[in-house]
Each structure stands twice: as structure tokens, then as C-alpha cells.
Design goal:
2 domains; 17% strand; N-(1-d-carboxylethyl)-l-norvaline Dehydrogenase, domain 2; 315 residues; 4-stranded mixed sheet; Rossmann fold
């Protein structure tokens, strides 16, 4: 399969590397100039499950990507705040046979991508893999994980493409699962991000350290209930107990992990994706008349921390 990976940070590196190792034709698309320079001169470098790996793959800035001979799949793994500009810039890549897959953190990305891609060409999902970008030229990839994806419509060609992508990802060892309703899965993953990413960033701890605290369960449950209440207004009925258990399973599965929001703000002093996670729930809750005091407070606190640290993009 000919695949363009749009956003080659930690997670983009994992997917690009695994897909290329499995024999797919992978092109890298990156907006961060320092990262792009490293990709072009040094290749895709990572420590994958304890082994140093280097792979030379074509890498381009978004406005430089050759549109021919065309891509089967454009995989978005960029930061949420970069999605709209990147999706717009990459419009020449969306050929008549091209599908777009979004596996990013955050909720509502299908609405952003839907401005540029027909719904019947759009696949949606999430990933529970972890990644850590140590430097612009090196990524640490460890821990186990999985991903989920599905089609947004019942269009037979779209449904078949979702299955094809699952097959390709399975051959690459990415442990995919085909979904009937990817929007439900995105909200469920949002519960993980809206608890662990946000709280570990504010408290400056890893996943296991947070999970060991006495108030952890009550905090997770309260936040998940707000996600569920807003999801219900959108026709998505989350199982709160199951979602809480899913979050709490991370304490052991990826306990040593520092979430991507922590890496963005605490390590690299960059703005976070909070507006697309807890901020999404707070905004949509307010619009629907649903109280979301935890998500409102957490969103405000993360923005305060961004301002106190003078967080800025260095791309």
C-alpha cells in the first residue's frame, strides 16, 4: 500500500517505521523544520523495543509532496491544532482512490477533515501505542499497544477499505481492530486522554504514579462521567464503568509512560491539545446544557500552566 504519514512525531514514527518494515511504500510529511531536516539527512531513527533502527524514507514539507503517482492512504498523526492547516495543504494528495485515516488524540477531527475529504473517503480511529520523541532526530518506542479504526458510513467501498487497512496494519504488527462505530471508540480513548494526559501533565507524574494515589479513582470516574454525558448528547452512549476500567488498566500496561501532553508541555514547553480533549467536552457541554465542571477546570488549569511556562511552538 502507498501511504503518506502526515505528522512524523513519536506516533507517526512508530506507524511509519512499522508499515515500511512490512513492505509498504511510505512517504513522510512533516511540518516541524528541525524534524524534517533530521528525517532528510539522517533518516527515520528510533529505539524500537530496545533495538536501534534507522530507515531512509522520502520526507517532505506539506507543500512539497509529489501528488503523483497518488496515495492509497493518507494517515494523519499530527497535533490537533495543526490538523486544519495540514489537511488543507495536502488537498492535492486526495485523489479519487485515496482514503484518509485519522488516528490522532482528540475528539471531533472528522469534522475538520470533512471540510476537505468526503465522508465516504474518511476513516477514523485511535491508538493505544505509546511513543516518546527524545530529540528531533530520535524517537523512543517501547511498551505494547494496539489501534482501532472503522468507516464513518456504510458505503461498501469504504467498509472494504477499512478492512484492507486493518489487514495491512496487522501485517505490520500494529495490532488493529476493525470498528463498527469509530466515533464511540474515539470518545472512549478521549476518556484516557482527558484523565491521564491532563492529570499527569498538571501533576508532573507518569501514569503509574498517578494511579497509585488515593484520589485517582474518584477523579477518573468524575471526568469520564462528563465525557459520557456530552457523548450521550451526540448519540454515543459510553459505558462509564467500562471506560473507567479501561483508563485504570493503563496504570500497569503503560505505567512508566509520560503521556504526550506531558511531553509537549513539561518536557518541550509547547502548547497542548487540551482544547480538543477536555476543552472539547467543556465547550460542547456548555452548548448542550450539560455541566462539565471538571473538564472546564482542567482545561483552564492547563492553559494557565501553558502561560506560566510561556509555552510556544518551535516549528
Amino acid at each position: 500500500m502507498r501511504i503518506a504519514v502526515a505528522g512524523v512525531g513519536g506516533m507517526g514514527t512508530r506507524f511509519a517505521l512499522k508499515l515500511a518494515q512490512a513492505g509498504n511504500d511510505v512517504t513522510l510529511v512533516e511540518t516541524w523544520s528541525a524534524r524534517l531536516a533530521a528525517l532528510k539527512t539522517q533518516g527515520l531513527q528510533a529505539k524500537l523495543d530496545g533495538q536501534e533502527v534507522t530507515m531512509q524514507l522520502p520526507a517532505y514539507a506539506p507543500d512539497e509532496v509529489p501528488a503523483t503517482p497518488g496515495f492509497d492512504l493518507v494517515l494523519f498523526l499530527t497535533k490537533s491544532m495543526q490538523l486544519a492547516d495540514l489537511a488543507r495543504t495536502l488537498q492535492p494528495l486526495y485523489g479519487p482512490q485515496t482514503y484518509v485515516l485519522c488516528l490522532m488524540n482528540g475528539i471531533g477531527h472528522e469534522q475538520t477533515l470533512g471540510k476537505y475529504v468526503p465522508q465516504e473517503r474518511l476513516l477514523l480511529g485511535n491508538t493505544m501505542w505509546t511513543a516518546q520523541m527524545a530529540r528531533p532526530d530520535h524517537v523512543l518506542l517501547q511498551d505494547d499497544g494496539s489501534c482501532e479504526l472503522g468507516s464513518l458510513t456504510a458505503d461498501p467501498a469504504q467498509v472494504q477499505m477499512a478492512q484492507t487497512v486493518v489487514d495491512v496494519f496487522n501485517q505490520a504488527g500494529l495490532k488493529p481492530r476493525l470498528l463498527d462505530d469509530p466515533r464511540y471508540s474515539v470518545f472512549r480513548k478521549g476518556c484516557v486522554n482527558g484523565t491521564l494526559n491532563t492529570l499527569c501533565t498538571l501533576l508532573e507524574c507518569n501514569v503509574a504514579e498517578f494511579g497509585q494515589t488515593t484520589p485517582a479513582h474518584a477523579l477518573v470516574e468524575a471526568i469520564v462521567k462528563e465525557f459520557a454525558a456530552v457523548g450521550a448528547k451526540q448519540g454515543l452512549h459510553l459505558d462509564v464503568a467500562e471506560a473507567v476500567a479501561h483508563v485504570e488498566s493503563c496504570y500497569t500496561v503503560i505505567g512508566e509512560h509520560y503521556p504526550s501532553m506531558y511531553q509537549d508541555l513539561v518536557v518541550n514547553n509547547r502548547p497542548t491539545e487540551i482544547d480538543y480533549i477536555n476543552g472539547y467536552v467543556a465547550r460542547h457541554g456548555q452548548a448542550a446544557g450539560v455541566a462539565t465542571p471538571y473538564c472546564q477546570m482542567l482545561t483552564a488549569q492547563v492553559h494557565v500552566k501553558e502561560q506560566l511556562r510561556h509555552a510556544h511552538n518551535d516549528q
